[in-house]
Design brief:
By secondary structure, the chain is mainly β. The protein folds into 3 domains: 121 residues, Sandwich (Immunoglobulin-like), CATH 2.60.40.2230; 85 residues, Sandwich (Immunoglobulin-like), CATH 2.60.40; 101 residues, Immunoglobulin-like. Helix content is 1%, strand content 40%.
Length: 381
């Protein structure tokens, strides 16, 4: 049931109140982007954010604030209070946002929180006003494909094979708070905010009301990264629909639609999730591969990290091989890897072959039965 709060009271009701969780799973821990627009002109000293019962905010941390002065947070029960160091005079309407981390979700599907602004005498300026309803999700066994969790994805000794039968992983097997920040690599996820300033311009973010394609440089980006971005435009500016349409090592491209390009003063927030290595890269021997060349194996090329594994699956209707080398006449063919030494066993339709790369470099490979089929694996440090 939604968290019930009384109707907004005080001098005014905030508008555009929203709460966006980075983790929308039951009992998940993450950060919340909380935004609102003021309704009343006044001098704001504190902003109170009341989370509904069931949320654990005892360890909440301030990540950033936008549109208000610098300050700090304190926690009392379900209320996270942001106190501005030097009270700020605000002319309404004024858009503001605060990001709070280390919030633990409840096991409740539909939720709302409330926001209240107060002056230096603790009098209400606006609110309390409920946010739009946001939804949390219970992970069920139906969401986990059979055999999709394997021992290669779990540290040795943490989960036994007998625990991983189809649909055997459920909430009863994972105790609350047993997975903490200490269990995850800090390089797994990061948050970046690019402002319309010299620092933002230096990495490719320079909104001017004309450009709609931006090449953003970030050394942590790989072709296997996942990037979620949010565009924040100045109050009164037109919204623009932007997304990531391509990635490569250390760079990704942001493409905004032509209906409304980002105006001056816009800033870009993005959250990047990078797959941890070593990992397994899936590759495919495509249908009708025997009549193809560099498109017989996909992707072409395959770019991985040292220690990663590539698994080729034969989606064709005829057998093939995956053999290192440039072709049948290469004296070193099959030395680095070979699915079928002496043509046995072949990779029959529906079957797979895997190889783990323990040395960096560029590896050429081909099919011994159809030498026109060629592929390439690049192994980075």
């Amino acid at each position: 049931m939604p968290f019930g709060l009384p109707s907004a009271y005080g001098a005014g009701a905030l508008t555009n109140v929203f709460a966006l969780p980075s983790n929308n799973l039951f009992k998940g821990t993450g950060f919340y982007n909380i935004g609102f627009t003021t309704a009343t002109t006044g001098t704001i000293k504190t902003i109170e954010i009341t989370f509904p019962a069931g949320f654990n905010v005892a360890g909440a941390k301030l990540i950033q604030s936008v549109g208000m002065g610098a300050g700090s947070i304190s926690i009392s029960g379900q209320v996270v209070k942001y106190t501005i160091t030097t009270a700020v005079s605000v002319t309404a309407p004024k858009a503001m946002m605060i990001m709070i981390g280390n919030v633990v979700n409840p096991a409740i599907t539909s939720n709302q929180l409330s926001v209240t602004t107060r002056d230096t005498a603790a009098g209400i300026i606006d609110g309390p006003t409920n946010s739009a309803t946001f939804t949390l999700t219970q992970v069920t066994s139906s969401m986990i494909a059979g055999s999709s969790i394997t021992t290669t994805k779990i540290l040795d000794g943490q989960v036994m094979n007998s625990d991983l039968a189809s649909n055997s992983v459920d909430s009863a097997k994972i105790s609350d708070a047993t997975i903490t920040s200490a269990d995850t690599s800090p390089s797994f996820m990061k948050f970046v905010q690019l402002l319309d300033n010299s620092a933002g311009h230096g990495v490719g973010w320079d909104p001017n009301g004309i450009l709609r394609v931006f090449m953003i440089n970030d050394t942590d980006v790989t072709s296997q990264s996942n990037i979620l971005l949010t565009l924040i435009t100045p109050f009164g500016g037109s919204d623009s629909n932007c997304g990531v349409d391509s990635m490569k090592e250390a760079q990704f491209r942001v493409y905004c639609d032509s209906s409304s390009v980002p105006p001056n003063g816009s800033y870009l927030n993005y959250i990047m999730i990078t797959k941890q290595h070593p990992l397994t890269q899936a590759a495919t021997i495509v249908l009708s591969a025997s009549s193809k060349t560099t498109d017989a194996f996909t992707p072409y090329p395959i770019i991985i990290k040292l220690g990663d594994t590539v698994t080729w699956k034969n989606e064709d209707t005829t057998p093939h091989t995956v053999t290192s080398g440039t072709g049948p006449s290469d004296p070193n063919k099959g030395i680095a890897f070979d699915s079928s030494p002496g043509l046995s066993p072949l990779i029959n339709p529906g079957n797979s072959y895997s190889h783990t790369f323990s040395q960096t470099g560029l590896y050429q490979y081909f099919c011994q039965l159809h030498p026109n089929m060629i592929g390439q694996v690049g192994v980075d440090p």
